[in-house]
Each structure stands twice: as structure tokens, then as C-alpha cells.
Specification:
Length: 282
């Protein structure tokens, strides 16, 4: 299958990307290759602060794209901190689309145990959020059982529906299409119709990709190499998601898998990812 076949191109239409609060220069460097109106997620990491997150969201909007600020539930010290963040986003006109995730800390830093607690508080909606994305885990989570993952996802989507908010799911990145496709079928079988953005690693160094995979419990090094199509003998090389996207596009069936697009984790940089998409689409 070539990159010009319609199935992979269909998945790439309207792709989204991710940046950190420190990536404003990288955003500017990618401006001439990033399609106008691209959804750009802005992370909520422990080594970033409120001004950095706000500045990054504002920069995305100023560049003509759609900012999707992250809200990390377990990193919030108080309801007042959440209100301050949402209020500042609202003032800057960057609160309409948000991504709510539990976050990395083993213990909550404040009153929010998980992303459902943030959603159920009603604060995102009260400050003007209209579209809320939540996380999905096709290959499971190293610290959370599969039944809990499903019940949590269903609870979040139910709360968003009760509040009249649009919802979508962004998945953790992976290197194997088989669990992604199986997860999508189960998702639709459970009656969940929310659009899904499948997480894909952007082109990056092999050592970096393997490092992130270990951190997030995604597969084994040997399994990743076999499925993704690179050699463990050349750890200094780079790898792109060509095979993953072609395989996903070949098997994707809207009738079974619903509305699906791609979300790029830009480990190798925003510009490198945008250039890769441009070249892949031909």
C-alpha cells in the first residue's frame, strides 16, 4: 500500500498534534507546514507553570490553530487553582476545547483523584469549555485494570453528555495496530460513538521512541521493532509511523470503527511531524 491510497489519507485528514509549554519557538518554526486550523494540544506537565501553559495556548490561537489545553487532575492543588487556570484560559479565548487527564502523580496533589472528578465538578463547562477530550488506552494501563479503564471511560462520557458537552477520545500512543482495532471494535460494541483520535508517535529517534514506550508501558522493545518496522541494531536511526498508518488505514472500516482520526505525539518536534505528514500525503 502506498502513502497515496485513500484509506491512510482519510485518517490523516484533520490530524492533531501535541506540544509542551516550552514549545512556542517550535510552533513558530512549524508554521509554514502545519495546516491552518490544526488542533494543537498543550500539555500540563510538572516542569511547566501556569504562565507557560497559558502563553503556549495563546500562541497556538495567534498562529491560526485550535488550542486544546490539558488539565491534569492530580497535579491540581485545589479547586481555586483549577478555577484560576480555567479563568485565565477563558480570558484569552482558549478554553473552548480542553483535554482532561488524571496525570502522572501516584497521589493527587489536591482534591481531584482523577479526570472524572474534574469533569463532574462542572467547572470546565462553567468557564466556557464546550468540547472535552478524555484519554483512551487500547493497550491497557500499567497501573489500572482493564475493567476499571472501561468503567472510567463510560463514566466520563456520561458526565459530559449530562452537561451537554461534546466529547472525543485521544488514545495513548502505540506501535501495533491490532490492539487499536480490537479496542475500537469493543468501544463501538459498548455503544460509545464519540470520535476517536488514535495516538501515533511522530517521526523520532529510535532510542527516544523506545524510552517513551518503556515509560508508558507500551509493548516490549522487540515487539515494537517487529510491528513498527525498525531494527534494534540501529538505535541511532529514526523511525516514522509509515507502516502503522498504512496498516491502520488498510483495516479501518468506518462501519465497525466509527469516526477515527490521528493525533501525533511530537517526540521528534512539531516541524518534523508536520513535514512527515505533508510528505506522506504526497
Amino acid at each position: 500500500m502506498s502513502a497515496l491510497d485513500p484509506a491512510p489519507s482519510r485518517l490523516l485528514s484533520g490530524f492533531s498534534v501535541e506540544m509542551t509549554g516550552k514549545d512556542i519557538p517550535a510552533l513558530h518554526e512549524a508554521q509554514d507546514v502545519l495546516p491552518p486550523g490544526t488542533r494543537v494540544n498543550v500539555t500540563f506537565l510538572g516542569n511547566e507553570d501556569l504562565p507557560m501553559r497559558l502563553a503556549a495556548a495563546a500562541a497556538v490561537k495567534a498562529a491560526g490553530h485550535v488550542p486544546v489545553p490539558h488539565i491534569s487532575a492530580r497535579r491540581l492543588g485545589s479547586a481555586a487553582e483549577l478555577e484560576k487556570f480555567l479563568g485565565a484560559l477563558a480570558e484569552a479565548g482558549t478554553v473552548e476545547n480542553v483535554f482532561v487527564v488524571a496525570g502522572d502523580p501516584a497521589e493527587p496533589m489536591g482534591p481531584y483523584e482523577d479526570s472524572l472528578a474534574v469533569i463532574a465538578s462542572g467547572l470546565p463547562a462553567a468557564f466556557g469549555a464546550r468540547h472535552v477530550s478524555v484519554a483512551g488506552y487500547p493497550e491497557g494501563h500499567p497501573d489500572i485494570g482493564t475493567p476499571t479503564l472501561w468503567s472510567s471511560l463510560e463514566g466520563k462520557l456520561a458526565s459530559l453528555a449530562d452537561q451537554g458537552l461534546d466529547a472525543s477520545i485521544i488514545t495513548q500512543f502505540g506501535f501495533d495496530t491490532a490492539p487499536v482495532l480490537a479496542w475500537l471494535e469493543e468501544l463501538r460494541g459498548r455503544g460509545i460513538e464519540a470520535p476517536v483520535r488514535i495516538g501515533v508517535p511522530g517521526p523520532a529517534g529510535i532510542k527516544r521512541l523506545l524510552g517513551y514506550a518503556r515509560r508508558f508501558g507500551v509493548g516490549t522493545s522487540a515487539g515494537i521493532a517487529q510491528k513498527y518496522g525498525f531494527s534494534l541494531a540501529n538505535l541511532l536511526g529514526t523511525a516514522g509511523p509509515d507502516r502503522f498508518i498504512n496498516d491502520l488505514g488498510a483495516a479501518y472500516d468506518p462501519a465497525r470503527h466509527g469516526v477515527v482520526q490521528l493525533h501525533f505525539y511530537t517526540f521528534g518536534g512539531l516541524r518534523a511531524t508536520a513535514e512527515w505528514v505533508r510528505d506522506f500525503q504526497g
